[in-house]
Write a structure and sequence with these properties.
The strands form two sheets. The protein has a three-stranded parallel beta sheet with strand order 1-2-3. It has a two-stranded parallel ribbon with strand order 4-5. It has 13 helices and five strands. By secondary structure, it is mainly alpha-helical. The longest helix has 30 residues. The two termini are 36 Å apart. The structure holds tryptophan.
Length: 335
């Protein structure tokens, strides 16, 4: 298939802490596999990150680290676009325009805004409120066909489609209306201590609940050893065994083996042996990534080059859409 004909996929991640194994299995690992079939944009959503208070030095560092991690997992900056959101001015510009095409009633319905307002009650700022509009701009600037979204971002993609449809309804076909991309594989990874809830990088109350991509191999092994299972002793995939099933999902995701094959492999094993097997599989997957991360993150010149070139490539595409949009709404046009 020629480059031109490939569909465009847009994905982004906030630089708010080291991604977890859940982020890796649920998002990053899939992104890597999209690269043959699609033209991809991989964004570091640092403008979204400042909707909650950040330490500036840490945010800057985590932004670079996330770029290094993208490279370490095998995202290719030559064939695709890896960039930092704030490096592309078009994001800020289109966000304002799209704000004027978004109803407060729509934003009031966003469950993430309600959750985050409850969590950050001392800082319910307007950016937190219009966060989905900034996100809509990310997607629409690149005329994206598809956006891989987990359950927590589904509503945001819906509002993006509504905003785009509304704008197109007034001005003609300016934006491509994006569809959700549902990965072929990819289980939802749950917390190791609380397998009823998703493993998320922000849910760090209990360090043993979350495996971080950059956790030392022995830390990974120990966290998995401490994972909650049940009083039963049988390794079996079943709804009434959330802890064991979660570990089987993890094993299946990192080895690429289907669940039934994974379960068969551990049939008759005690939980100790099972957890050792899962731990080793996770370490085998993450250790090479950690090694590459070290290399990329210490090569400041190369990282900066990737970021600058990514920003240029992204800006070029984004500005084409932005120029159209500005014309449509009646901003001055200069020859
Ligand atoms: N809000 C997303 C998250 O926290 C990150 C994000 C920003 C994003 N812009 C995006 C995801 C555009 C998909 C498309 O996970």
């Amino acid at each position: 298939m020629s480059e031109e004909k490939k569909k465009i996929i847009y994905s982004a991640m906030q630089p708010s802490g080291v991604p977890s194994l859940g982020n890796y299995i649920g998002a990053l690992k899939n992104w890597k596999n999209l690269q043959d079939e699609y033209n991809c944009l991989f964004g570091v959503a640092n403008m979204h990150a400042i909707t909650v208070r950040q330490n500036p030095a840490e945010l800057r560092q985590r932004t670079k680290d996330l770029v290094a991690l993208f490279l370490a997992i095998g995202l290719d900056p030559e064939k695709h676009i890896i960039y930092v959101q704030s490096d592309v001015k078009a994001h800020a510009e289109i966000a304002w325009i799209l704000n004027c095409f978004t109803y407060m009633g729509e934003l009031n319905r966003m469950t993430q805004f309600k959750d985050k307002s409850a969590k950050h009650a001392d800082n319910i700022n307007a950016g937190l409120y219009t966060y989905p509009v900034l996100m809509a701009g990310d997607i629409l600037l690149y005329q994206s066909d598809l956006v891989p979204v987990g359950a927590d971002q589904k509503q945001h993609l819906e509002i993006c489609r509504d905003i785009a449809g509304r704008f197109n309804g007034v001005y003609g076909d300016v934006f491509k209306i994006p569809d959700p991309y549902i990965p072929k594989v990819g289980a939802r990874i749950m917390g190791l201590q609380n397998p009823e809830r998703k493993m998320s990088k922000s849910e760090s109350d209990n360090v043993n609940n979350v495996i971080y991509i950059l956790d030392e191999p022995n830390v990974i092994r120990n966290k998995i050893k401490r994972a909650v299972t049940d009083s039963d002793t049988e390794v079996r995939y079943s709804e009434d065994k959330p802890g064991v099933s979660n570990l089987l999902n993890i094993y299946s995701a990192v080895t690429g083996k289907p669940i039934d094959e994974a379960a068969a492999e551990f049939k008759g094993c005690g939980y100790g042996e099972f957890k050792t097997g899962v731990g080793e599989a996770v370490v085998a997957e993450l250790e090479p990534i950690q090694q590459r991360f070290k290399e990329y993150s210490s090569d400041k010149a190369y990282l900066e080059k990737v970021m600058k070139e990514g920003a240029e490539k992204a800006s070029y595409i984004a500005n084409k859409t932005l120029t159209k949009v500005k014309k449509k709404v009646g901003y001055p046009i200069y020859k």
